[in-house]
Amino acid sequence: MRYVIAVAEAGGFEAAAERLHMTQPPLSRQIRELERELGVTLFHRRPTRLTEAGREFVESARQVLADAEQVVERTRRAAGVDHGAVRVGYTVTTAFDEMPKMFAAMGARHPGIRIEAREGWDAELTAAVAAGELDVLLGRHLGVPPEFQTTVLRTEDFVVVVGAGHRLAGREAVSLRELRGETLRFFPRRFAPHYHDAVLGAVRGTGAEFDVWENPLPGLRNLNVSLRDSGFMVLPRSLGRQLPSGIAYLTITDEMPPIELRLSWQRNPSPAVTTLIRTARRLARREGWSVS
Amino acid sequence: MRYVIAVAEAGGFEAAAERLHMTQPPLSRQIRELERELGVTLFHRRPTRLTEAGREFVESARQVLADAEQVVERTRRAAGVDHGAVRVGYTVTTAFDEMPKMFAAMGARHPGIRIEAREGWDAELTAAVAAGELDVLLGRHLGVPPEFQTTVLRTEDFVVVVGAGHRLAGREAVSLRELRGETLRFFPRRFAPHYHDAVLGAVRGTGAEFDVWENPLPGLRNLNVSLRDSGFMVLPRSLGRQLPSGIAYLTITDEMPPIELRLSWQRNPSPAVTTLIRTARRLARREGWSVS
DNA sequence: CGACTGGCATACCCGAAAGGTATACCGCCG
DNA sequence: CGGCGGTATACCTTTCGGGTATGCCAGTCG
Fold this sequence. Notes:
2 copies of one chain form a homodimer.
Chain A: H1 2-10, H2 13-19, H3 24-38, E1 43-44, E2 49-50, H4 52-79, E3 84-90, H5 98-109, E4 113-119, H6 122-130, E5 136-140, E6 148-156, E7 158-163, E8 173-174, E9 183-186, H7 193-205, E10 211-214, H8 223-226, E11 233-236, H9 237-241, E12 247-252, E13 259-266, H10 271-287
Parallel strand pairs in A: 3-4, 3-5, 8-12, 9-10
Antiparallel strand pairs in A: 1-2, 5-13, 6-13, 7-11, 7-12
The structure holds a DNA duplex.
């Protein structure tokens, strides 16, 4: 049902496949098998248009899927799981994409659970956890206390970020070797030592060596300033996409270990915390984070 | 969802598994994984009872499943597939179990399709097909015109049927060799030559030989008369179960080829005919006919 | 008018998940 | 306290959903 709706909304198989985070052939097959089982043609092909029966199907199917969602919510409510509060600490690398989406997902599916979110650098979050002020941590290569359990929400590669005036700004992909002699811009290590080490370790693993110039101002918001004239940064791909205009990001052709976004929580989590964990996992599947 | 409802209705995992035509362990696992995903316990175990949340789940899930059924019906209706008529010829071996169930399934899911059913022996049905009076044939080892297409709806083994006073009537299983010297009762070959040959061929394939006494009256309705004193019959298992009281049926321990129930139709079937074929296949899956 | 391109279909492969078999465990009853 | 009904656990098999490579066809443009 989701597939038919996606094809109808996207106006074609290829576009729908992308939206569903899958490829076109299995999608075509699933639709065709459904058509065989129903004995009814849902789409005219070439161009892809809904048939009369297809319109009917999409309309009813939307209702059924919505109701199915309701089932789990009502059940959770009946079990008394849908209340309480979660205190989340997150890093700046999640502040543009993942954290807002998770916040939205929790609000939509579990309005009864209150979320207290606090952005901070590695040391601040660690201190807050030690003080018992946080239940959950969300970040990339955060320092996490050993008594916490962890799951990976997203795995992705790095991209190179340069200013729009850079000589490579028009390229799709580069090797790090092409950047020899340039300066790698980074925030000071003390703000997020594990992440800092992970990125530089990954870069050095390719055999490349760079001068690292540590911008005294941490944060990603003033990139166009620091990259105006020269130098480059190395960031997870999803962050590269979120940057303001005047900035270009390039795929790296060298072999590099991927970077992981992790969710951590202390043992014996409250029902509200487990609900947040489940919701985050669902979100990751829906958004295709395990893949890209 | 179907699984949870089945467990709730059956009052236990084992009984529910039987109703679903599967075994208990995978059912238990599925339920447990659903409970994990929901973060909610649906059943108290030992004894198996619904929790409060479980009741909520069952209630909502019933509605969703019913609506999902509706989706396919509305779609078929919109495609204009749900009208027309099918003329079905069937043999007496299907008259107790399969044919009534198929009739009921068609009435429930496709009330717009009219069914004309005609019971008859092999030769009568063949003649009716030749005269263009039938669209579909349902039977066990019927003679089917070569231009018909065929699918297998059910595969099962044979049982031995004896009168209640027979010396073996209390037994669970027998070898055909234990019946040496007794008379195999059968209807005259001319009524259904292919079926007759299939059964006797299967029996002789075990190495056993019997006197065959052909009851001049065909039909299964007067069995208790013909089996009152002595003799036995060999029938497909599902027919053995349907017999009147005063009759016992026994599993055969010898190796014998199974007997198939087949559905046949002429090429280029009308939409109504393909609908009936699909419905029959669904029915066969639901009833577990491919297995038993 | 034919070569090109975009988009769906076809063929084949692989891994995850569903179902089956064998068996252990556990509460209940005699 | 031992047998029994019924659920859980361990392990294997099969099925199906998804991926990659490639074919095919309609519409378009040189």
